[in-house]
Amino acid sequence: MKISRGWKLMMLLLLLSSRGDLQAQEAVKENYNALFYQAPQKVPTGKTPDGPLTGNGDIGLSLGGTPERLLFFLGKNDFWRAYPVYPGGGIALPGWLELNIEALKGADYFAEQHIDSAMITAKFKKQDHELLMESCVIATQNIVVISLSSNKTCKLNLQLQATEGNTSVNGKGINAGVNWVSRSFENTPLLEWPSHIAIALKLIGGNADANGDVMLQAGKKLHIVLCMYSNHDRKDWKEEAIKEASFMTAVRLAEMKREHQNWWADFWKASKVSIADPVLQKYYNASQYLFACSSRGNKFAPGIWGPFITRDSSSWGGDYHLNYNYQAPYWAAYSSNHLDETDNFDQPLLDYMEKGKEHAKALLGIRGIYYPVGIGPKGLVTTRWPLSPEEMEKRYATRENTIDGGYKFLGQKINAVFSVGNMMMRFYSTYDKDYAKRVYPYLIECANFWEDYLKFENGRYVIYMDHYGEVMPNLKNKGQWRNLLGDFNSTLSLGLVKLLFKGIVDMSTFLNLDSNRQEKWKHIRDHLSDFPLGEVDGQLSLRSVERSPAAWHQPVQGLARVSIHGLVLPGGVCGPVTDAAFNQILRNDVARWKSRMNGPGEWGNTLGNGIETCFPAAVRVGYDPGEILNQLKDRIRRQSLPNLWITADGGGLETLSAVPMTINEMLMQSYEQVIRIFPNWTRSKDASFDQLRAYGAFLISSALKNKEILYVKIYSERGRPCVIDNPWPGNQVQLVRNGKKATLLSGSRFNLPTKEGEYLELLIAP
User: Fold this and answer.
1) HEC secondary structure over 523-556
2) The dihedral sign for the CA sequence 579, 585, 591, 594
3) C-alpha R_g of the chain
């Protein structure tokens, strides 16, 4: 097998990093961009494409094809077929641009995905003919730009295509020199709302004939400008796309590119992390970039694959899967101070509340909200069972398509409360009153549900029939699944419910609401069942459930991906600050992960799911940081794509939080409202960070050099008390307020009053 230069470089860096040879690493001039020395192999795909990617948080551009036939796939977060059953419903592909260049048949391929500027550049060379391509999705507009230049005059053929099939209605035409195509889903039974989209194309620097042929003149630039609007952007979506494309000029294009550059410059200024590990630095930056390409606050939230859709029928419909896939991509954005990326998270959850109330009442006879495993935008459910017994039997080995009223709850009650974890991360990180008011009704309905669903027995609250894993009929169990029902006190459920009642007490106090309900909420918070424990080799270890009829729950499994969701991330109810003795049990469980490996990259069992869960959790409980970093690099080497997307078999976008969340947690933690500086970092590696966001609405900066912390800088957004562990244990600390020396601090932990907009700095006292 021929190995590309890009992969040789990455393998060398991984080898050097695993040896800890910093001097050798520095000898390798690393380029943090993604480099491609061959055409993409997985474009189109139903999962994550492996080609160069760029986007603006709404529109995604995935480059595929070969030099003689380039394919620019155009995805959009708001273009869905709003049908309640998968397959058939879910996010859909608007279309693509096909660029045929016969003269480049057999040409060499080189492309680069630029992380800093969100550009894709490419050079295709055949003998003495060289063609250059540059493309981007304008950060602030619904515009895609593809610019071409060549040292030889050559003929191009452009074909703008709208995806056909799956009941869509398509259109195309030419208006005032603008080519356009459209795709619509409407007037089909069971569609919950219509979706329409138009893609309009204009050339700047050339003209195409009726067949799409255009001559690219030697030494001249040709700009292909594509404008995309859906009916969720504009009421007159098609007319607006055509009009905006028709108004494009070289001057306007230059203005847009400046806006684009400024937006990305501001993005990278929001926070910065520098670590003496080129491999993880590369994936840290790339993951931040890819999620910024995928999510924007004023747009529809991204589904499992974000806007990088390259065909219809993406796996799991590309929907919002609520038992971790939807929530996980956002986790690193909070501490990375990229709050705009998270501002779209709540809307789909709020939009489904009325249906959630109906489910709770009709199926369980209680108050509150009860969500199925998968939803979409605008109150859409995506996970109904097949609508006919025949299709149900074909796919799930049973004709019973009326399970749980025809909706896939899959034995789990946690699909609504799971998202409270993200809401509390945002709330604790900002103490934004407007945000709290927006999501508080959601927390109230979750509280209503669990107040009614919990049982108080023998002095503790217990949880029946909420399952640690999905329980459902399928071909493997031949439709026999009810014998697997019966989980009692799942660690996932206990942790998320504890998070809910802890969080709603905090938020209601902040908003000065519902003080009459706090006694009940505190009683639940303080009297939930303890997390179940067993023994492994004479040591206490976490059980996944207190009891269950399922055989796979009988062994003591220890801390694992699903239990981490309840306890650590997003649960946030366990850790060394919370309960040091229990945290030691969890740390011992992490230590056993290595003995369960069959090969490199299998630490924590994350090849299917969970890299974004297990690695940050290992940091939180205080496991050896050097081992974590080495195992993380092995995992990257085992399963990632040339575009720097770390992949998992059971999901897509969520892996983008893995490296940033792991590194951020190593450099700064603030759960339980206690800030800890370099709490679990390898002190032999220099590192620094600027403006990581901490609970309490603080922006924190610090640097570690030659094993010593140089300073800690704190900016207080809300004027809240700042609780911080002494970064220099055993030493006195000089406090500086707004540039002026204040008091000397002593002790292991400081409680510092702050004012809104105040700057503080901590320095080790001479």
Assistant:
1) HHHHHECCCCEEEECCEEEECCEEECCCHHHCCC
2) negative
3) 27
3-state secondary structure of 150: strand
Q: CA 463 to CA 501: how far, in whole Å?
A: 15
Q: What is the pLDDT of residues 168-182, one digit of tens each?
A: 999 999 998 999 999
- Write phi, then psi, for 662 (nearest 5 degrees): -60, -50
User: Could you read off the pLDDT of 104-142 as tens digits, one per residue?
Assistant: 999 999 999 999 999 999 999 999 999 999 999 999 999
The contacts of residue 700 (CB under 8 Å, 6+ apart) are: 668, 670, 675, 677, 689, 691, 692, 693, 694, 712, 713, 714, 715
Measured CA to CA, the distance from residue 760 to residue 734 in angstroms comes to: 10
Q: Hey, how many other C-beta atoms are within 10 angstroms of the C-beta on 308?
A: 29
Q: Can you say whether residue 577 is alpha, beta or left, with left for phi > 0 and alpha for psi between -120 and 50 degrees? A: alpha
Burial 658-688 (b: 16+ CB within 10 A, else e): bbbbbbbbbbbbbbbebbbbbbbbbeebbbb
What is the pTM assigned to this prediction? 0.95
Joined together, the tokens standing for residue 630 give 């080495």
What Å distances lie between residue 404 and 363, 476, 479, CA to CA? 7, 21, 15
How far, in Å, CA of 97 to CA of 72, rounded? 5
Q: Is the dihedral of CA 367, 373, 376, 377 positive or negative?
A: positive
User: What confidence score (pLDDT) does residue 29 get?
Assistant: 34
Find the mean pLDDT for residues 51-64.
98
CB atoms within 10 A of CB 596: 11
Which residues of 48-118 form beta strands (DSSP E)? Answer: 53-55, 59-66, 69-76, 80-81, 90-91, 95-100, 108-114
Report the residue count for the chain.
766
For helices 625-638 and 658-667, give the axis angle rounded to 10 degrees.
170
- At residue 399, φ and ψ (nearest 5 deg) are -90, 0
Helix and strand numbers, DSSP H then E, in the chain: 18, 36
In a 3-state reduction of DSSP, which class is residue 242? helix
pLDDT 10s digits, 361-401: 999 999 999 999 999 999 999 999 999 999 999 999 999 99
At 224, give phi and psi (nearest 5°): -100, 115
